[in-house]
Amino acid sequence: MVPIPLPGTQLVHVGRQPIFDQTGDVVAYELLFRGSMDAIEAGRRDTYATSQVIVNAFTEFGIDEVVGDRTCFINMTREFLVGELILPFGPEHVVLEVLETVEVDDEVIAGVTELVAQGYKIALDDFVWGSGHEKLLPLASYVKLDLLDGDLTHLDEIVAACRAYPDIKIVAEGLETGEHLALSNRYGFELRQGYVLSRPQVLTAQSLTPSKLRRLELLGALTAPDADLDKVLRIIAGDPALTMRVLRASNSAAVGATSRVSSVRQAVVMLGLPHIRQWAMLMVVDDVAEATETQMADALTRARLCENVAATFGAAGDAAFMAGLITAVAQMLGISPASMAHQLPLTPEIEQALERGTGKIGQVLRVVNAYERGDLKEVAAAYAGQDLSGTVMAAMKWSTMAVAATAQGAA
């Protein structure tokens, strides 16, 4: 049964097919574009598909959730190979697959050479001798040979050409029969991939839909000659979906972030404006549907309310804002705050508040929760007898103005 997206959300998908070594252990996953959770084939292998795979894997699921500590293979189109679209992740645990549809000319060779110099590993997908891709053999770490649909009449010569480069590992793909496995064993192919071993699995999650206008505004702010960090922060903090993506990106092992964050500002500084710019570019290419203004205003109201009452409990305002925003987003996605906390690089104080409701931020969340469910007696007891209605109205006014101002600035 296909799940129905909650209001203000969409379903996002990424395909994942294991790659095995000779002993049968999973050593890597190829990440694949999937337009729906029941899609059998990719449907498309263009720049949009690659962008959506990257954005979904790294900022919706979190790359650790998708591949763990294993390597991931990602299809690359010409735009990424020549640098027209910048890769927003580092080379750790990632292999860039040069699609067989890419024409290998001087510009592609120069681009791949630069990527290898930066530490990225390259795989040649569906390798066919004479297609021009043999020019990239000196730069490749992997060559993928299709044993199902490929021409096997010259397999001896192709394998010999690959073996001339000792650092290249051969991935036998398209394995669907016992004969294919026997052929892989006979040639000593190091890695194997195909239906006879494992079919692709489609991972699906609820995702808050980010605003197209805000992504464009963010990209504009980031590409300005004198990029203003405070303006960038306002745009990101004004869109819960962008906030979640930035937080997950800062938690990505491929970005190399290991610190824990307690505010949106810290996450942005940790990633750096160049990385934020790269993610914004891919989000524009990804081109998902716009979130509703009402959903964003409600989430921001809760976040602002948490920030405003934080001082009463001796909690940091920016940390309370983040905790309030995360709980609001979790509610929209139909998951628990604890589940979302596991996906984000949060400080122990925020993490414990979301998972167990403890600490000063836990107290903030409890009083806000009590107000939202109409338990005014608990609010009065927790909030030292103060009336919270004025603070709530101020938070609602702020969030409404923030959403309107951001939308107006992006129009």
TrEMBL record:
The EAL domain, residue ranges: 1-214
Coiled-coil features, chain-numbered ranges: none
HDOD domain mapped to chain residues: 208-392
One Pfam family this sequence matches: EAL
SMART domains, sorted: EAL
Gene3D superfamilies per UniProt: EAL domain (3.20.20.450), Hypothetical protein af1432 (1.10.3210.10)
Name by which UniProt lists this protein: Diguanylate phosphodiesterase
